[in-house]
Amino acid sequence: MDSAPRTPVTAVIVVAAGSGQRLGYGMPKAKVPLGGDSILTHALRGVAAAGIARQICVAIPPGDPELHALCQAFTQDLQAERRRAGHAGDGGQLPVVTIVDGGATRAESVRAALAALLPATEAVLVHDAARALTPEAVFHRVSQALAAGALAVIPVMPVVDTVKTVEPTTGGGAAIAPELVTGTAARETLRAVQTPQGFELATLRRAHDAAASFDAGQAAAVTDDAMLVELLGVPVYAVRGASQSLKITTPLDLIIAEGLLEGPLGARWVEG
Ligand code: CTP
Ligand code: MG
Fold first, then answer.
1. Does the beta carbon of 247 lie inside 6 Å of ligand 1?
2. pLDDT-based confidence at 2, cuts 50/70/90?
3. 92 or 30, greater pLDDT
4. Which of 29, 98, 183, 216 could form a disulfide with 57, with the two C-beta atoms 3.0–4.6 Å apart?
5. Is 151 in the pocket of ligand 1 (CB under 6 A)?
6. Higher model confidence: residue 82 or residue 223?
7. What atom of ligand 1 comes closest to residue 28's alpha carbon?
8. CB atoms within 10 A of CB 58
9. pTM for the complete prediction?
10. What is the C-alpha to C-alpha distance for residues 178 and 227, in angstroms, rounded to an integer?
């Protein structure tokens, strides 16, 4: 009997509907140039290169014609590349690319994409377009954990800084400094969380259904999908992420991402 894990039919959701306030480019972050292309183009190429997606579902800012055209151009490039490589009939399927209007929060963008997945989908990876340089190996590690039976799995990195909790200072302390330290977290148990985060589809749908009724305060505290699954009491596994998966958030991050593509380390640095 064959006991090898079967790879579930997988969709990758790419959330790209944010406005990029902290990057400060005056345009949605997905459009911001990076190494001669846009951040979203890099992200989509990374997903396609990983070769795990039957469908790639992209959430973009509602009614953004440029990003819509960019996704369509990406689809055409995929098809042209496949024709050039003469892959027709080799069993490898091109992913279906679906474009949806994102929502006002990241979670709403994920929910819009969840509603547009193909009926055969069994597993889903949710990926930030802002993590445009995520290596293929990370997609594979997440995918393999799902195939091995995880209902939820996230890529993580060890934390290099000591992390403390604080509260605002009150009374006399306020004249000294704005915050007072309340504790120090045990660093060896801390992990910085990246994407793509992988889920059995029904589990993620259940988690997002529960979150759809959150009040504004609760909704604002939702920063990833795994935390919604944790609230259901479902175990969330962690695999190794990668430094290149940094989330391009601030201008400094964009400089680092440009450096990864163009700098002296670029070609040599193949950390998986
Ligand atoms: N995102 C989304 N829909 C939203 C908000 C965010 O699809 N309403 C996506 C972003 O496009 C990004 C990912 O979620 O790929 C992570 O969000 P973040 O890095 O915060 O991006 P922005 O929200 O665009 O940036 P900022 O918070 O600085 O405005
Ligand atoms: Mg944001």
1. yes
2. low
3. 30
4. 98
5. no
6. 223
7. 24
8. 30
9. 0.94
10. 29
Cα(128) to centroid(ligand 2), Å: 10
Residue 159 is given by DSSP the state -
pLDDT-based confidence at 1, cuts 50/70/90? Answer: low
Question: What does the DSSP 8-state code read for residue 62?
Answer: T
CATH code at 10-158+191-269: 3.90.550.10
Which ligand 1 atom is at minimum distance from the Cα of 103?
Answer: 8
> Mean pLDDT across the stretch 247-268?
84
Q: At 219, list the tokens.
A: 């909704």
Distance between Cα 20 and ligand 2 center (Å)? 7
**Domain coordinates of the chain in residue numbers?**
10-158+191-269
pLDDT given at position 86: 73
Q: 87 CA to middle of ligand 1, Å?
A: 35
Closest ligand to Cα 248: 1
Take residue 59 and report the two structure tokens written for it.
């959430």
Which ligand 1 atom is nearest residue 30's CA? 11
The SS3 of residue 142 is: helix
Contact indicator for 220, 165 with CB cutoff of 8 Å: no
Ligand 1, atom 6, residue with closest C-alpha:
18
Mind listing the pLDDT tens digit for each residue in 31-80?
A: 999 999 999 999 999 999 999 999 999 999 999 999 999 999 999 999 99
- pLDDT, residue 262, reads 84
pLDDT for res 82: 85
The answer for residues whose C-beta is within 8 angstroms of residue 224's C-beta and 6 or more apart is: 154, 193, 195, 197
Cβ–ligand 1 distance for 29 under 6 Å, the answer yes
